[in-house]
Sequence to fold (251 residues):
Amino acid sequence: MSAITIGSTVFACVFGGALLGVFLRAVLPDHHLSSESRDVVRLGTGLLATMAALVLSLLIASAKGSYDIKNNELTQLAANVVLLDRVLAHYGPEAKDPRDLLRRSVVRAVEQMWPKDGSRSAELNPAATGAEDLYEKIQALSARNEAQGALRADALRIAVDLGRTRSLLFAQSGSSIPLPFLTILVFWAAVIFVSFGLFAPRNTTVVATLFVCALSVSGAIFLILELDRPFQGFMQVSSGPLRTALASLGQ
Fold:
């Protein structure tokens, strides 16, 4: 389910809670809306608001941390691509085939991780780029002297690091946001907005304020989900590092 769909659902639940509170205000007996009842409801919603704020901050921190980790791994991947190309360049003309394969693998990775067709999801499986063939190509190089042997060993190590980073990105492609946390947070927000509508006067200013507040809550959930899915949606991690690395390959 897309972040927009979930965000819209959250908005419907939260703003619907406010409208439910307005409806209950019209049908409940007067003693349910007394000052004593209002004080109890305020205490309860204050507790819910505190817990909701803590959970919301926890979810934002978790999503932002996951986004930063994947962004850093992508930057490390680009740096290793450039380093591997330079090591193979120093190896000599014999490494032309691995260098060409490296370039093709990076082109394929960029196309799969950031597909031009917006309807397609990102492909993070390292096996889909042919990176394993690159390792075999490097391993097949025959070192003629000690220097080439050291360069070949360095190239194999970097190729392993590339594969490890791609595997990490693939393994971390799932959501880091626990669904129960998100469900409970939305429930708490809906209950809080029910209390807002229950004791708020019915006028345009109040309704507009509740609308904006509900939109803000759903926007926060949308932001969390976007950060949690860095290879899709509106807040994708930049392909700039890999494209910059690609431009320097073969030089």
